[in-house]
Design brief:
two-stranded antiparallel sheet
Length: 103
């Protein structure tokens, strides 16, 4: 599983492998490699590089981007809520509320 989104590309972390475990069943939810300091530096550099264009984009475009993100969350709301519940052990109603807050 690729675990890091840097500069619009999914990639593996270069750090120590680890896994997310469902606290209720102890089943593995996902596995991946942690980010190293170099991975973090690459993510920060990519974000800094993208900021001027984002800042210069018209407000209407930035709003549309955030609205698209909200629409994607809404589209997969139940799947995201189920995944968060499995990872954290929270009740499903609580994770649904979390997704609602993000939307």
């Amino acid at each position: 599983m690729t675990t890091l989104l840097i500069n619009g590309e999914w990639r593996e972390g270069h750090g120590t492998p680890f896994q997310s475990t469902d606290p209720a069943s102890e089943a593995t939810v996902w596995t991946g490699a942690a980010a190293t300091a170099a991975d973090c530096a690459a993510a920060v550099a990519a974000a800094r590089s993208a900021l001027p264009a984002w800042r210069a984009a018209p407000l209407s475009e930035r709003i549309a981007c955030v609205q698209r993100f909200a629409a994607l969350l809404e589209e997969d709301r139940d799947a995201f809520a189920a995944l968060i519940s499995r990872e954290t052990g929270k009740l499903l109603w609580e994770t649904r509320a979390e997704i609602g807050s993000m939307i």
